[in-house]
Amino acid sequence: MGGGGKLVSEGKAYLADGDYRAAEEVFRKALDRKPGSVDAAMGLAEALIFQGDCDEAREVLQSVSVREGGQRYDEYRTMYAASGISDETCEIVTENFP
Predict the structure, then answer these.
(1) Block mean pLDDT (10 aa), the chain, length 98
(2) pTM for the structure as a whole
(3) Cβ(30)–Cβ(40) under 8 Å?
(4) Cα 8 to the chain's mean position, in Å?
(5) How far apart are CA 15 and CA 21, in angstroms?
(6) What CA–CA distance (Å, rounded) separates 6 from 85?
(7) H-run or E-run covering 12
């Protein structure tokens, strides 16, 4: 695992702690080091969704390629569906899952 992998692990730890801003920062760094990283993109999207930025989360997910039927495909589809929720619903998620 290169530096990007360590950053993804660090970002996941921030997500688990509910520190979405720190997770966003770390996942962005991971994507800078390894553009197209599905793990980093999905982590960044999750952090953005929990901060109420579903539009950017959707853009991040669209920037990576996940093969249908692949190992991460179901998780990707779920994350993509979550990024497509309305702004009002995104606010409810943000308020109820601090």
Answers:
(1) 78 96 97 90 92 87 75 71 65 59
(2) 0.77
(3) yes
(4) 10
(5) 9
(6) 31
(7) helix 3-17
